[in-house]
Amino acid sequence: MINRQIRFISLVMLSLWLLVGCAKDNHYQQLHITKQMAVEPLQTDNQTLAIAFGGGGLRGYMHLGVIKALHEHGIKADLVTGSSAGSVAATLYASGQSYDKLESILMAFSEYDLMDFVLSKQGLVNGQNLADWINASVPQQTLSAMSIPIGITATDMTDLESVLITDGNPGQAVQTSSSIPGAFIPVQHNEHLLVDGGVLNVVPVHYARAMGADMVIAVDIYCGNQPAADKTSIGVQLATFRLLACRLSEDEIMSADLVVRPSYEPKGSGVSSSKQVGVEAGYQAMMAKMPELKSLLGQVD
């Protein structure tokens, strides 16, 4: 009887190992990482418009709606920054591909395909599937080769500060910025441990300024519509983290020239209907702010 139980447990463990897999190496030495005070601004005599794409998980589909509204009105950013889920939007936008192409990429996206679960004390998800997906979705091999300047945030848990990724592999940069503490295995860069950029920069407005932006559109998909916490343990923990992150970032978000806060809270996984609702929420929020944006830009309908 005991031998049978041992064999059963061994079979279960082997099945889990084959299903989940082992952790891969997340040591990315080629990323160019800088602190805010050392960021080199874009040199131009023209007025510079930036979009700061904020983090927010599955709420990230709202970024596509914002991009759609700007596209319809012929408004293009000169540079972009992104944190966490916002790093995905920033990277796709900076790649210079058409709106239709970006829409097809994101609507075909499935978060389940990116969940490369692992057996590791460092986290439950490796994150390299996300990096591979980003690299397959953009034509550029480095951030510096993008159509417009881009900065992607990360949180340095060694020096306990926010940092900006301005060059290196796009997928690795997005993976780093999206490495949710406790869920994703952190990224190692030299002697530094890097996690989700949204820990200290929910919407990276200050970095957009540091990169040379005269005007910044802050797209906040996380802090403007926070519901009350549900009564489960994990629900309270997630709501607590969200509350702290948003309170920490509120002054930075509101320092933008224009703040766009779509009103939508996803209830489940990113099924097609939820994606469409998220995109529409982002679109409507940006359209509501369009007169104000055009006034800032000196445009007259």
TrEMBL record:
Domain PNPLA: 51-209
Pfam families: Patatin
GO biological process, one term: lipid catabolic process
Membrane spanning stretches: none
Active site positions, chain numbering: S84, D196
Motif GXGXXG, residue numbers: 55-60
Keywords of this entry: Hydrolase, Lipid degradation, Lipid metabolism
Entry keyword annotation includes Cytoplasm: no
Top-rank taxon, per record: Bacteria
Sequence motif GXSXG, location on chain: 82-86
Family matches, as PANTHER family: NEUROPATHY TARGET ESTERASE SWS, NEUROPATHY TARGET ESTERASE/SWISS CHEESE D.MELANOGASTER
UniProt-recorded name of the protein: NTE family protein
